[in-house]
Amino acid sequence: MSVYAAYSHIANNLGAPPFLPLNRDRVGDVPLVNLTGGVPAADILPYESYSQAVGRVLGNPATAFSSVSYVSPFGIQELREQVAHWRGVPVENVLVTNGAMNGIFLAAQTLIDPGDTVLVESPTFPFALNIFRRAGARLESIALHAGGIDLDELEQRLREGRRYKLFYTIPDFQNPAGTLTSAEHKSRLLALADRYGFAVIADNPYRELWFDHEPDGFPDDYRHAERYSPLYEIGTFSKTLGPGWRVGWTIASSDVVQRMSVIRACVDGNSTALGQYAISCLLQEPYWFDRLLEAERALYRGRAQALVSALRTGFGDAVAFDEPRGGFFLWLGLPQGIRIDDPHVQDALARQNVLVTRGDSFAPEQPGRDPAHRDYADHVRIGFSALPERDLREGADRLAAALIGLA
Amino acid sequence: MSVYAAYSHIANNLGAPPFLPLNRDRVGDVPLVNLTGGVPAADILPYESYSQAVGRVLGNPATAFSSVSYVSPFGIQELREQVAHWRGVPVENVLVTNGAMNGIFLAAQTLIDPGDTVLVESPTFPFALNIFRRAGARLESIALHAGGIDLDELEQRLREGRRYKLFYTIPDFQNPAGTLTSAEHKSRLLALADRYGFAVIADNPYRELWFDHEPDGFPDDYRHAERYSPLYEIGTFSKTLGPGWRVGWTIASSDVVQRMSVIRACVDGNSTALGQYAISCLLQEPYWFDRLLEAERALYRGRAQALVSALRTGFGDAVAFDEPRGGFFLWLGLPQGIRIDDPHVQDALARQNVLVTRGDSFAPEQPGRDPAHRDYADHVRIGFSALPERDLREGADRLAAALIGLA
Same domain for A37 and A72? Predict the structure, then answer.
């Protein structure tokens, strides 16, 4: 390597890709069924409304120039107010970000110094792990159960003197495990954060996409903090309006929001103005967003049910999973003895031309680092949001054909 | 401060705002003339074309979903190819970024470890200084002259054993000083970078907005590097199509582009897809961008000339400046003995209700750190891009009325 290409420590230690690749080629001429996606359904997004909103913003002399000019690093005031009103917080607590990922990054920058310990759920979203590692954090994990992590175990660790700079959680329709936490759980978690001095980054991209019941919220006294609160709530329009807008938000103390906005002035200045104005224009139309959300919930509920029923038909009792109650994913425990890191298993899936996301992609530990720890190679994540029910049934059938009797 | 609000070192050391505020209120009832802007002229941007392009992208089944979905962290292929073709480099050397600022940030992340020394021009763009400081860099500066820094002085420093991780330069229509560097200067700079092992971040947001002659380029053998080259060329559509799109680019070695794209996967994933598709759609129309650039060059040339002539009328020989040859700014040396950090001077400007950007905003040294060094309080930056010629003349008249005879 040339001397002038001497990279930074960060650039020289980029790590493995967050999602482990399936290392076998697929065979055969049947069309692929791709169950890896974490994207909205292409057939439900209202492109015509999007186009009209952009047209209105650019056709209105009051917004045309602003929508293609520099805007506040906090986000445009109209959109901040709409998010604040919708999420039930004061506007000073809302920062507009380039998607939820950018919220996690900026939160990490406000909190993490090299050597700080970040506690994460196991399994969890691997892109967040990358962000924390890149910021120089040491990672520690705590197992996820139905209903969230075991808060008794967390309290025990804290009582024993273990300290964390922050706890990263995906509180509702967790990615990949689909777990949902209750109001009591959220409240007790924040009380622990308050008492033992750690921040809580609550990454909640799927929150609006519930099937039967809206998830419980965090207690208001942590969400309306004028100065300091441990809570950083991260949301996004990526799963409801589309990730290509790159418009998300973070709800945090006004002081945190202030600092995050100054940091972003050294990252990219501000989020796209045109996207913010267009989304704000759409949200102004009474009930427009509510109606879209209702349609999306119905669509994803139907798709989840089709997948669940096909998996039960194909596998019977051979697999274990919780039925999704929202979000985009089903976390499938494979039949006894089957591991996704086994080349024979990968061969069998390739022969069926069906793609799923490897469970070990979501393990917080580096492979081989701690053999006592769960590696989740006995799980796969199935994304049901992007495919019609017919394809989901086909995918479930092929998974069963590949895996039943393989162990 | 609560223990859980313990911020990172970064968040606790956010520093002064990059532009020093004028600390006097303005008085009187005459309308403000604001000469601080670095934004395109609101009356030349083609909002109708923008709206149509977004409509075409969202109305086309081949692009509708992609334009609101996740896209490659490198940028969409169509736009990368268009930028590559236009700028005369292979597509592998092009990364799409969230504006030029994001390119500087990502370049800094690939290069800087805490303690590295970054060399900058004096004066220079303060937001870049913030990015380098935030990455933990020590800053050293080298004085800018007409035609760029003195490369003999740079070579002398290098021969004496001083070493830099990177040199940050704004090669054409420098912000704030307006200097332009020649092909020979660019070539010799890169030869020094090659020989002494430092990277060159060439931030060039104003490059396309020349008045009479297109600026010289960097030598092709540094711009087509398949693996390693010291050159990171940063460009943007912010000054030509509007900053609100948040679409810029970095041209660098394919290996650098690869690493920058992986880093951005931990910052925000990717740039806005809709903006990329819309701009790509606009660039497809033959001569559309060329015609817009021609109109912009003519408009800004006329505005610069109006400002220059009004300053000469108002000040005579009392001020010193080079006539702008492109870009958005005029760097005005104030009349002998007048300093912008003098409250009487600020009062005089406030009474005239005219705003300019303080020259000391562009000094690389922290105030008071090195008294031997230039602080540029004897300069102001005047932005001429955003105001009609009438307002520029009015602004120049008011500046003269405020400052003549004040020393």
Answer: no
Asked if A55 has any chain B CB less than 8 Å from its own CB, the reply is: yes
Spans of chain A, pLDDT less than 50? 1-3
* Same-domain pairing of A213 and A340: no
Distance CA(A45)–CA(A53), nearest Å, equals: 14
Burial label, B161 (beta-carbon count in 10 A; 0-12, 13-18, 19+): exposed
Chain segment A329-376, per-residue pLDDT in tens: 999 999 999 999 999 999 999 999 999 999 999 999 765 555 567 899
Per-residue pLDDT tens digits for B137-189: 999 999 999 999 999 999 999 999 999 999 999 999 999 999 999 999 999 99
Helix (H), strand (E) counts: chain A: 14, 13
Tokens representing B239 are: 């000054």
How far apart CA A279 and CA A247 sit, in angstroms, is 9
Contacts of A199 in chain B (CB under 8 A): 4-5
CB contacts, 8 Å: A3 with chain B: 197
Q: Which pLDDT value is given to residue A1?
A: 39
* CATH code where residue A36 lies: 3.90.1150.10
Q: Are residues B127 and B35 in the same domain?
A: no
Residue-range definition of the domain harbouring residue A95: 47-284
Nearest CA in chain A to B126: A266
The percentage of residues in chain B with a pLDDT greater than 90, rounded to a whole number, is 86
If one counts the domains in chain A, the total is 2
Identify the closest residue of chain A to B9 by CA–CA distance.
Answer: A113
What is the distance between the alpha carbons of residues B166 and B250, in angstroms, rounded to a whole number?
16
Can you give the pLDDT at residue B1? Answer: 39
The beta-carbon neighbor of B39 closest among A18, A69, A270 is A69
**Chain B interface includes A274 (CB < 8 A):** yes
Among B222, B249, B284, give the residue marking a domain's end. Answer: B284
Please tell me which residue of chain A has the smallest CA distance to B57. Answer: A51
